[in-house]
Amino acid sequence: MPKNYIELNRDRFLGELFELLRIPSVSAKSEHKPDMEKCAAWLAESLAKAGADRAEVMPTAGNPVVYAEKICDPAKPTVLVYGHYDVMPPEPLDEWRTEPFEPVVKEGRIWGRGANDDKGQLYMHAKAFETMVATGCLPCNIKFMLEGEEEIGSGSLYRWCEENRELLRADIILVSDTSLIAWDVPSITCGLRGLCYMQVEVSGPDKDLHSGLFGGAVANPANVLAKMIASLTDENGRVTIPGFYDKVRELTPQEREDFNKAPFDVEEFKKGIDIPDIAGEAGYTTMERTGVRPSLDVNGIWGGYQGEGSKTIIPARASAKISMRLVPDQDHREIAGLFEKYFTELAPPSVRVKVTPMHGGQPYVTPTDLPAYAAAARAIEETFGKKPLPYYSGGSIPIISGFESILGLKSILLGFGLDRDAIHSPNESYGLENFYRGIETIIAFFRYYAEADRQ
To answer: Fewest 10 Å CB contacts: which of 34, 55, 68, 152?
Structure first.
């Protein structure tokens, strides 16, 4: 029985995950390139040991892709499992209560960078696969495609998919890189926001200037940048970029009512992230703001002296990273153009502006009438004891919409994270129960999906 196999191998599964988490596969930093290659090789070997007939590390223009497969019967359906082995940078390091790349278990949770996003969730699929092979109950063909660039936009994966369409032929893509509404409110993510990520630089003098000798006579790039950023949203929380909302798909009153039926406690939300009050676009609930409305945020800002003590200067330049989360039917390429035009127009003639698009991806919606969606819903009902709610996530996985356009495949977003997991933040964690129940649910998905194919 699969459940018995999981129980007998719990400690080994966890030990292997810890090995994976110890590899600092940070795709955003070039010095971690050897770690990316090490991580890919580790995963390929792990999938081979789990029972894959083919498991290899395949090069791309950037970080490698791990591809593995087991074709038990060409006449049976094929599930393509997608995940990513790269992780976010761990900084700020002084806010971690544990070492980010030395995982530990405390309070029933795995603590470490990648514990949830996405190594913990990715590895559930590897262990579900091993369990099905070992117990003789793998009902479908399975392929794995694990990339190392999701956290920086999956730039190399688009071309790799185009070059390997035949290799990736499947019936559905299964992804665990999302979350549940709550542990007692299971859900399936059926929508993701898109992403448009930009970097901007405002420059003035050719060098830092003495703020006493030049202050009041020379535009300060940091001051100007702050004003320009402040102009990107208004007092009602709306983005001010002309044309930004032109293609936003507005929900009908009935759709809004249905969307807000999912349980949500504002006070618990505030308490969970220690904020004094909520904020956002006027006229919309917090659920709507984070699921079906677009947004704009500064992700990082820098310029001038930031060391110990004081240094009275006018900085020569100031910069920021800015991301916009998009909803159907916004296009990240169009939004990037609108942003660049507007941001440049905001600048006074006393400074120069440089706008650099970093990466982006389209919004994505999974139809809830797919047989694979029904299989996922039955699987969650079996393991959680409740029917899952459809859920629109505020997060983005840019490549998911790319899979549909390149491979012609829909994706089922069967994630098991929780808000408390602090993905992308210091002290990322993932519940032990989430990890093991995730394995059981994935196995149940394969069973129900195979049954649907036979009907």
So the answer is: 34
Please say whether the dihedral angle defined by the alpha carbons of residues 208, 211, 214 and 216, taken in this order, is positive or negative.
positive
Q: Is 143 left (phi over 0), alpha (psi -120 to 50) or beta?
A: beta
Over residues 158-209, the pLDDT tens digits come to 999 999 999 999 999 999 999 999 999 999 999 999 999 999 999 999 999 9
pTM (predicted TM-score): 0.87
Q: Please enumerate in sequence order all residues whose Cβ is within 8 A of that of 255, keeping only pairs 6 or more positions apart, or say none.
A: none
Instruction: Answer whether 450's CB lies under 8 Å from 213's CB.
Output: no
Token couple for 9: 């191998």
- Which whole-number Å values give the CA distances from 445 to 143, 172, 351, 440, in the listed order? 15, 12, 57, 9
Question: With left for phi above 0 and alpha for psi between -120 and 50, is residue 283 left, alpha or beta?
Answer: left
Measured between alpha carbons, how far is 120 from 143 in angstroms, rounded to an integer? Answer: 18
Q: Inter-axis angle of helices 119-134 and 432-454, to 10 degrees? A: 50
Between the alpha carbon of residue 428 and those of residues 202, 227, 275, the distances in Å are 34, 33, 19
DSSP assignment of 281-332 equals STTS-HHHHHHTS-EEEEEEEEES--SSS---EE-SEEEEEEEEEE-TT--H
